[in-house]
Amino acid sequence: MRLKKLYTLTLRSYLPPFIATLFISVFLLFLVQIVITYLDDFLGKGLRTIDLFKLFAYAWIAIIPQCIPLAVLLASIMSFGNMAESYELAAMKSSGISLFKIMRAVFVFVIILAGLTFLFNNFILPVVQLKSSALLYDIRQKKPTVSIKEGIFYNGIENYSIRVGKKSVNKDTLKDIYIYDHSAHVGNNIQMYSQTGKITTTSDTSALVLILRDGNRYEEVVDNATGDKTLSQLNYKQLQVNIPLSDFKLKRTNEELFKGHGEMLNVWQIDSVIDSTKRVIARRIINFQNQAAGNFYNRTAGMQHQVKKYELKNINTFYDSLDNSRYALAVQNAMNITRSASSNLDSFISNLENEERHQNEYYIEWHKKIVVCFACIVLFFVGAPLGAIIRKGGLGLPVIVSVLFFLLFYVLTELFSALALDFVMPPWQAMWLPPVIFLPFSIFLTVKAAKDSSIFDVTVYYTWIGKLIKKKDAV
Known about the structure:
The chain has three domains: 2-142 and 368-474, no CATH class; 160-248, no CATH class; 257-364. Helices cover 65% and strands 13% of the residues. It is built from eleven helices and five strands.
């Protein structure tokens, strides 16, 4: 009964900072990765609120797994630091409860969280990444909304050129309007001039509507039979011109085109792609070997036969036996064969490296889905004992320490990933090294916290240095 209350207490102490730090870290990362990075792609394109909401929702969900290790680390330091600062840990230990029992309930929660993170990464995240990437691509490809400036011809609308002399203060009334219509694709055959007008769009934004007043419309009509040209003129009090804006609408790309990336696949799909890539690489190697043996050897076998025929010890003697034209032809032929073989080899090596780099990317994504779960457990055993040792809660020192640890973990992960893509180290080794590096440190901190060690107490080191100096003076 006493342990149940203890577990309830530790969970209540852990969950609020975990939820708060997870939300804050996701929000900050969302601002950096999405809003700030792609802000220029959103502005001035007249995007619908529903499209922006979908994109932001997908991006927000996709960022959550990246922030879970940081939230685990920060919440562990804050919660156990608060309990240590208020002497709750000391009271529990004095009643005979070990640190491991105190941490048990939170540890079980972190294990469950790690399992849920894997399920999320494997089943939900690929779908979210697919929809997010496709929508972001479509938004970046969308043309900006119509922006007609005073005194400048606007050519952003296909087949139309529009010039406005002046706009009213509230931008709804235009003056001195020139419109050149090239939609017939026969040149500048339709021209419209208007003293005033208004510009709006249809309800579905599929067309630009210009209401022209007090103007003229000129059209040059060509008779295809005789080639004669006739100029027609229309004087109007009011004329409505509808200009299609199909190019300015958001066009959705087929999501199937984005499914080849590792982020959009689960572990079993990645395994299948890796197996296919291995077969492609093996097939290309065999084909190149056959090509080298069949093509390069056959083209050089004739020359080898002639050299053996003369049984010459020095190749220069063989060339001297030829006349100048035959010698030049033989040299040119040999150089052409060498260039061709060298070019084929360079192309083969380049293609092979690209295939292997893609294969490494898939390996990295495969391991990343699992490593983040293991990282949650390791960082918990860094944060919980660290909070118990430094005995500080709140948003001060724990935040600084946890952010430094997480930045170190993130930098190591990115560094080793880059090394894996450059074929310096295997992908599995690159992805598992960061948590493995943190593992001994987490064990060390846990042992020290269980023994109530004061490794972060500066006065202990001052006392130890003082004793060391006194011993030297005594000697």
